[in-house]
Amino acid sequence: MPKHQPTDPLGDEELPSADAYAVPADLDEPGSPKGSFPEADVVDVSFDDDAGPPRKKPSGLKVGIALAVLALAGGSLLAYRYVHRSRVLAAGMAKAEALIRQDTAAGYREAATLLEPLAEMDPLDAGSLRAFALAMLAADYRDPPAEQKAEALLVEPGRAEKVPVYANLASAALFLGRRAVGDATTYAGRARTSPWGGALQGRLALVAGNPEAGVDPATAAAALDPKLAAAQAVAGDLLRRARQDAAGARAAYQAALAVSPTHPRAALGLAKLALGSQIPLAEAIGPLQKLVGDTQATPRNERARAALLLAAIELRSGDRPAATAALEGIEGLDAAGRGWAERAARVMAEERKRYRAVLAAPAPLQSASDDDPPEVLAVEPEPPPPPPPPAPVLAPKKAMKHAAAPAAKKAAAAKKPAAKKPAPKTAAKKPVR
Q1: Hey, CA dihedral for 371, 376, 377, 379, is it positive or negative?
Q2: In the chain, pLDDT over 70 holds for what percent of residues?
Q3: pLDDT digits (tens, 9 = 90+) for 355-375
Q4: Which of 41, 131, 322, 412 has the highest local Cβ count within 10 Å?
Q5: Binning pLDDT at 50, 70 and 90, where does residue 2 land?
Q6: Any idea what DSSP says for residue 392?
Q7: What's the rounded Cα separation, in Å, for the pair 318 and 168?
Q8: CA distance 44 to 382
Q9: What does DSSP assign to residue 107?
Q10: Which has the closest alpha carbon to 189: 157, 156, 163, 227?
Q11: How far apart are CA 351 and CA 312, in angstroms?
């Protein structure tokens, strides 16, 4: 049986060969005169469905215009970024300076955190300001990592043709923390155009034991910038210790607390005036209580020192339960430290003259904000002498009898005639011949 043959729909028409679709050689070769066209008249004749209608390639003029537009846009973007960067730096540094002006551990720490990214953008000014915040943390609040970070940040500003003011202030604060008074004074003097320079010079005079030398620079800084808490507080200490100017010290402490309500040096200074009987006791209690209660922001040793002075004031005012509560709130004290605190509070409460710090304070009660030289021992005050015994009370009759006897004796003596004195002997006269 013959096999079935498939039907060809095209019939007997001959199919074109593959060579019919090949590109002619004269068009395929770019160098051929028949296959080349002027560049401006070349038309894209691709039949891609998504390509749209045929389009001409852009001319050189259009390309230049496009490049100019791109360059202008790029320049505008760079200018915008520069202006934006400058604004970010200015706003961040202004906020950081406001935090630093509080002169507290929390203010310095927050400013240092805020300035961390800004110091990468501007190692000179922002880096110097961050170094100063960290240096004050190291000097006043026992923060060794902050000291290392501050030193690293000061490398580039120290090599600058003009060293920023805050870089000099940071170096002065680092040397202050090390109690290297000479080096610290040199750097603080280089920053004398800033009120911070005068404040640090006042601090250095207290460390050197020569408070009189710090009065003028500190009071000048406080007058130049009345809202700089650091200058006001140290001026108060200098006026109290060097000049015994209680009124001036009181005004300076109050000015510092008005700007920074939990300023340790100012709150402790008011307490010292109160214990020295120079201001009412009640005036110092409020700031001390606020400082003791600031557990989130104020370091523990600052709160402990405030609690000690608060206990002494409460004892002076006669409120023993309040004094006991203040001492019990001190953290980190062992039995020996607790005993010292109780004796020291009683010593300060009993002294009603000029404030004198107590010797041998344990570590949890040591504070850079209280740098008065220790002068008194923490010993129990001598008990007052016993009162004299009362005079014996006599019975009424006996008292009258005893009282009449001397009177009778006086009357008898008055009536008795006075004894006559013997006449003086005279020498016998010799007869005259």
Answers
A1: negative
A2: 73
A3: 999 999 999 999 999 999 999
A4: 131
A5: very low
A6: P
A7: 49
A8: 112
A9: H
A10: 163
A11: 10
